[in-house]
């Protein structure tokens, strides 16, 4: 049976369609907390530090505070929407119910860029850390694309094997990552010389040998240019609603898990920005171009003789994020595919494991191809290029999710909301404004633009596909049925 509405066509799938695309409920509140924190935690090990080159230490600290406010507004909005619309579709689901099929698809496409590109950034940093370890061990460096492929294969296997194993690995590596950060904080405090090292960047971008420079060497414009890098301290916490159909009690546990995760990350982000550049022998200038800032800190504290062991330890945070973001990427592609926005073959799940293995493999291959192309085209800027592609997709997604929150408050005031954001519409508007400023500085800086052009081409290709093909092949999935009934249909996962 087919129906048409709002310029799109739907097919009513039978039970066998959804049986081939079933998921398994497993996650409780601490599994969800670990999923959120684990997805982000690599951003406290690598990536955020590039912001020292645009804002200096003070610029990075203030930018981090501004971005934390943006994420609080976003997270509290999602904490309200996710138990009210407990579908795997997450951002796409929120937008579909508030802005129709086109709004749902475009929001899903923005999030798709974020979740395919974020694993590539983390994988790049894993390669940097591994080669740092190999060098210290006297083995010599390994060709980076080989390390990337090997990393994807190992963690695809762990994710595909089963949701129970995936969540157990997530919890273990997330706890280990946080423990390693705590060890670093405690170790760093006796080795701090804040004025000499954290403030060692001059206004012209060169190193101040004696430190004691300005907190804001590049002024307030430098603070704003640092916003895209500060995003890396929190990016991907919003992935939790993608686990809604694998959560035992999403209406109760989803808000608690995401809020606890955000509070954990705010504390960790403050400590790492404060301490890492202040360690004697490290400094903001060195960290502004480092692919392994935490390892630089450990090396300065414990000496080069411990680099191999410390490097392995420091890899834990990157592994935690890579593993959990692969999970999110698979569910994000799965949800759009199950509803027909992407080809439906991508949403097939394993017969025993019930994991969306086709979606995870396909997304991983696309990510690997993109990072390999960037490696050959802009090798010296691969880290910042991939990072800015992920951040650009994320900012567009955040704006649309905040808009969805506002429209859901207005259009569907009757739906049950087990949790309500204390910031309400004001928090969503604040999220939109900060995200727009971040996008503005991405678009206006030549060093960011290469990656952004690639994302714009991605958007264009996706919209053309949906206009010509996808909108005629939609399926009445849980997200679509809920949206078409304006929240009156009882939630079900078939």
What do these coordinates show?
The chain is mainly alpha-helical and 494 residues long. The chain has one domain: Up-down Bundle (Amino acid/polyamine transporter I). 67% of the residues lie in helices and 2% in strands. It is built from 17 helices and 3 strands. It has helices at 15-19, 29-40, 52-84, 91-136, 144-161, 163-188, 194-198, 219-230, 250-275, 284-287, 293-302, 307-338, 357-377, 382-411, 424-444, 446-468, 478-484; strands at 2-5, 8-11, 474-475. A 3-stranded mixed sheet has the order 1-2-3, with no helix packed on it. A hairpin with a 2-residue loop joins strand 1 (2-5) and strand 2. Helix 3 packs antiparallel against helix 9 and helix 4 (91-136) packs across helix 5. The protein is globular and about 70 Å long. The two termini are 17 Å apart. The mean pLDDT is 88.
Question: Which structural traits does this protein have?
Answer:
494 residues, mainly alpha, Amino acid/polyamine transporter I, three-stranded mixed beta sheet, 17 helices, 2% strand
Spatial arrangement of strands, main beta sheet? 1-2-3
CATH superfamily: Amino acid/polyamine transporter I
Structural class: mainly alpha
Work out the helicity level. 55-70%
Largest sheet, strands/sense/barrel: 3 strands, mixed
Oligomeric grouping of the chains? single chain
The CATH architecture name reads Up-down Bundle
| CATH fold type | Amino acid/polyamine transporter I
Number of strands: 3
Morphology call? globular
Tell me what portion of residues adopts beta-strand conformation. Answer: under 5%
Q: How far is it from the N-terminal to the C-terminal residue, by CA?
A: 17 Å
User: What are the secondary-structure elements, in order, as H or E?
Assistant: EEHHHHHHHHHHHHHHHHEH
Instruction: Please give the count of helices.
Output: 17
Rg on CA atoms, Å = 22 Å
- Unreliable stretches: none
Mean pLDDT: 88
Number of domains: 1
């Amino acid at each position: 049976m087919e129906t048409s509405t709002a310029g799109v066509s739907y097919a009513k799938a039978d039970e066998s369609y959804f049986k081939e695309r079933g998921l398994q409920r497993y996650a409780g509140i601490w599994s969800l907390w670990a999923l959120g924190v684990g997805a982000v935690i690599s951003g406290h090990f690598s990536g955020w530090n590039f912001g020292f080159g645009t804002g200096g230490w003070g610029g990075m600290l203030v930018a981090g505070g501004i971005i934390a406010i943006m994420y609080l507004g976003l997270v509290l909005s999602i904490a309200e929407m996710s138990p009210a619309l407990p579908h795997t579709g997450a951002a796409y689901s929120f937008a579909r119910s508030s802005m129709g099929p086109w709004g749902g698809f475009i929001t899903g496409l923005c999030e798709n860029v974020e979740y395919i590109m974020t694993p590539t950034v983390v994988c790049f940093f894993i390669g940097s850390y591994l080669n740092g370890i190999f060098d210290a061990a006297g083995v010599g460096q390994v060709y980076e694309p080989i390390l990337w492929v090997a990393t994807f294969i190992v963690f695809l296997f762990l994710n595909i094997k089963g949701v129970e194993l995936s969540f157990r690995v997530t919890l273990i590596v997330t706890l280990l990552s946080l423990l390693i950060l705590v060890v670093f904080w405690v170790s760093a405090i006796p080795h701090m010389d804040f004025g000499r090292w954290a403030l060692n960047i001059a206004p012209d971008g060169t190193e101040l040998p004696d430190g004691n420079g300005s907190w804001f060497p590049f002024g307030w414009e430098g603070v704003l240019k640092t916003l895209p890098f500060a995003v890396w301290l929190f990016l991907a916490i919003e992935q939790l609603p993608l686990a809604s159909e694998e959560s035992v009690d999403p209406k109760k546990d989803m808000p608690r898990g995401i809020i606890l995760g955000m509070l954990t990350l705010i504390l960790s982000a403050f400590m790492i920005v404060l301490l890492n550049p202040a360690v004697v022998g490290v400094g903001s200038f060195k960290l502004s171009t480092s692919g392994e800032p935490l390892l630089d800190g450990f090396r300065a504290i414990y000496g080069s003789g411990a680099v191999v062991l410390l490097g392995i330890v420091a890899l834990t945070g990157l592994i935690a994020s890579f593993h959990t973001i692969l999970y999110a990427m698979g569910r994000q592609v799965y949800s759009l595919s199950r509803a027909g926005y992407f080809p439906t073959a991508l949403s097939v799940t394993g017969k025993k494991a019930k994991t969306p293995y086709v979606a995870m493999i396909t997304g991983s291959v696309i990510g690997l191809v993109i990072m390999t192309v960037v490696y050959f085209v802009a090798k010296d800027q691969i880290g910042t290029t991939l990072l800015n592609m992920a951040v650009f997709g994320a900012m567009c997604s955040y704006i649309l999710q905040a808009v969805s929150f506002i429209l859901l408050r207005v259009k569907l005031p009757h739906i049950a909301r087990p949790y309500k954001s204390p910031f309400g519409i004001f928090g969503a508007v604040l999220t939109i404004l900060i995200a727009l400023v971040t996008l503005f500085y991405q678009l206006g800086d030549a060093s960011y633009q290469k990656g952004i052009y690639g994302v714009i081409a991605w958007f264009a290709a996706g919209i053309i596909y949906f206009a010509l093909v996808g909108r005629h092949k939609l399926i009445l999935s849980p997200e679509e049925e809920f949206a078409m009934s304006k929240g009156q249909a009882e939630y079900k996962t078939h």
